[in-house]
Design a protein that fits this description.
15 helices; NADPH-cytochrome p450 Reductase, Chain A, domain 3; five-stranded parallel sheet; six-stranded antiparallel sheet; Elongation Factor Tu (Ef-tu), domain 3; about 20% strand; alpha/beta; single chain
Length: about 400
């Protein structure tokens, strides 16, 4: 049997491919308080290959309005040559601020510099108070509510040269997004599920750098989007006869859409079970029509839904897990793989706690023995998480 070798791609993290966006559509229905996008990215001809479970790395650009405001506050034109860290050739201040440096997450160091440069007594006093050894908590809170532009606005008495400002900024790093498609079903394409981040802090509207770059500023088929494929430990079982349980609320649904597409394309005989949650069934069931079709065709054995705002008491995916505890344990005992994708801070912890409880209760095990069972699942790659 001849096994074809995938074409070699010269594109990597250090040499990204300039891809084009073919589709950008809102997944939420009218009336939703959320904005989640389905993006289709064209990788045809790039030689880039991926497997389900992998992520797509994207190098974003900062918002042009923000860049122009920073240039103005620096009293610069934007054409000044600067040399960001790790680069060997100078480029214009505007270009550096747009694609090379991060304008978020200011550090203590910039406050120290502003304190040394300002001639304004009030500014000096405020900065000295923030930098005092006993003000650690106040300093953390202050910086956490601000971006670099806020500091330039709040301390105009400190005149920074463009290069001195650039020296304080970290590199603009790529963002990783779980791939929401199988290459077997969509050759030459990568699908993503992206929720643009928009919020307010310190009286200013904030925008997620990469999520709003993709959702709002990339013009379909025109704007080049620098991308690379990031290999992942996350993926479907090599044995297609194995059952899988997928927990993916919100945008955590992305890799599981890819998983099921892959299992359909490879005629895997194992059963698929999805737990999905969001705010409202009518407006926030991402890819709802596709999941209903998968169930109707027998491709997905079961979908358990948790829409938190559709009833007085909030219901989450971990609650649905507990309700289905007996069946869930039967699947696990039968060798099913258990996957979690989404928010690391709360959801993944709550799901992990529910999993331990279900194994202890249904398996008649002491908590320590249930913990050992989960450890063994992880060792056997039967419990995998893609959390952020």
């Amino acid at each position: 049997m001849h096994v074809s070798t995938p074409p070699f791609s010269p594109y990597t993290k250090d040499n990204p491919f300039a891809a084009r966006v073919l589709e950008n559509r809102v997944l939420n229905k009218d009336g939703s308080s959320k904005d989640t996008r389905h993006l289709v990215i064209d990788i045809a001809g790039s030689g880039l290959t991926y497997k389900v479970g992998d992520s797509l790395g994207i190098y974003p650009a900062n918002r042009p309005q923000l860049v122009e405001e920073v240039i103005e506050l620096l009293g610069a034109t934007g054409n000044e040559p600067v040399l960001p860290a790790r680069l060997t050739a100078a480029l214009s201040l505007r270009e550096a601020l747009t694609t090379k440096v991060s304008l978020t997450g200011p550090t203590k160091k910039i406050l120290e510099t502003l304190g040394a440069l300002t001639a304004d007594p009030k500014e000096k006093e405020q900065l000295a108070a923030l930098l005092a050894p006993e003000a650690k908590e106040a300093l953390e809170l202050f910086l956490g509510q601000r971006e670099y532009i806020d500091l330039l606005e709040e301390f105009p008495g400190a005149k920074l040269t463009p290069q001195a400002f650039i020296d304080h900024l970290r590199r603009l790093m790529p963002r990783l997004y779980s791939i929401a498609s199988s290459p077997k079903m969509f050759p030459g394409q990568v699908h993503l599920t992206v929720a643009p981040v928009r919020y307010e802090s310190n009286g200013r509207r904030r925008y997620g750098v990469c999520s709003t770059f993709l959702a709002d500023r990339v013009t379909r088929r025109k704007t080049p989007v620098p991308i690379f494929v990031a290999d992942s430990h996350f993926g479907v079982p090599a044995d297609g006869a194995k059952d899988i349980i997928m927990i993916g609320p919100g945008t955590g649904i992305a890799p599981f859409r890819a998983f099921v597409q892959e299992r359909v394309a490879t005629h895997a005989t194992g059963h698929n079970w999805l737990f999905y949650g969001d705010q409202h069934a009518a407006t926030d069931y991402l890819y709802g029509d596709e999941w209903k079709k998968f169930v109707a065709e027998g491709r997905v054995a079961r979908v358990d839904l948790a829409f938190s705002r559709d009833q007085a008491k909030k219901v989450y995916v971990q609650d649905r897990m507990r309700e289905a505890a007996g069946e869930l344990w039967a699947w696990l005992k039968g060798g099913a793989y258990f996957y979690v994708c989404g928010d690391a801070h709360r959801m993944a912890k709550d799901v992990d706690l529910a999993l331990h409880e279900i194994i202890a209760q249904q398996g008649g095990l002491e908590p320590a023995a249930a913990a050992d069972y989960v450890k063994q699942m992880k060792k056997d790659k039967r419990y995998q998480r893609d959390v952020y």
